[in-house]
Design brief:
There is one protein chain. The chain is of the alpha/beta class. The chain has a single domain, classed as 3-Layer(aba) Sandwich (Rossmann fold). Helices cover 30% and strands 25% of the residues. It has five helices and seven strands; from the N terminus they run βαβαββααβββα. A hairpin with a 3-residue loop joins strand 3 and strand 4. Helix 1 packs across helix 2. It is globular. The two termini are 18 Å apart. Bound molecules: adenosine-5'-diphosphate and magnesium ion (MG).
Length: 155
């Protein structure tokens, strides 16, 4: 499934819709260049999931991991500065998943060995200054369930 957004606000709103469609244990693997809109999208997911202040989610410079308590625990990891999968696992990645949280990983292609088979892959591409294409791929049963809920939440 592919969707286009035409402003940061639209990307935020798309993230909010996904944030209302989460179930525990989901891993969201975000792929896309710097400035594509991955962090903007996760801000929306946090907000849709009921985190009090979505501005708490920023692309972390010194913090690699942010945790947000909403309907579900959302853990947002920017793996840009990690050397690879082993470093992510050393940060406790497998425990986050085991805890039934929702885990959103930026630069997922850099740590693909740590990403479980069942995940929701979202590729974010910059088309022009304000246009972004988001391509959603459900790679397993929990991701399929999430996308079904996302498609039902059309508001
Ligand atoms: N349609 C859009 N969706 C998301 N971001 C957009 C859009 N149009 C422009 N932008 C800009 O692109 C940048 C995206 O930044 P960010 O979300 O931090 O990207 P990433 O996390 O992928 O590096 C922001 O400066 C934002 O204002
Ligand atoms: Mg980012």
């Amino acid at each position: 499934m592919q969707l286009q957004t035409h402003s940061p606000q639209e990307t935020l709103e798309l993230g909010q819709r996904l944030g209302r469609s989460l179930s525990g244990g989901l891993v969201i693997a975000l792929v896309g260049d710097l400035g594509a809109g991955k962090t903007q999208f996760v801000k929306g997911v946090a907000s849709g999931n009921g985190a009090t202040d979505p501005k708490q989610v920023t692309s972390p410079t010194f913090t690699l991991i942010n945790e947000y308590e909403g309907q579900r625990t959302l853990i947002h990891i920017d793996t840009y500065r990690l050397k690879g999968s082993a470093e992510l696992v050393a940060l406790g990645f497998d425990e986050f998943i085991a805890e039934d949280a929702v885990v959103a990983v930026e630069w997922a292609d850099r740590v693909c060995e740590a990403i479980p088979e069942d995940h929701l892959r979202i590729e974010v591409e910059s088309i022009d200054a304000n246009t972004r294409r988001l391509s959603f791929s459900a790679m397993g049963a929990s991701a399929v369930a999430c996308l079904e809920s996302f498609n039902a939440n059309q508001d």
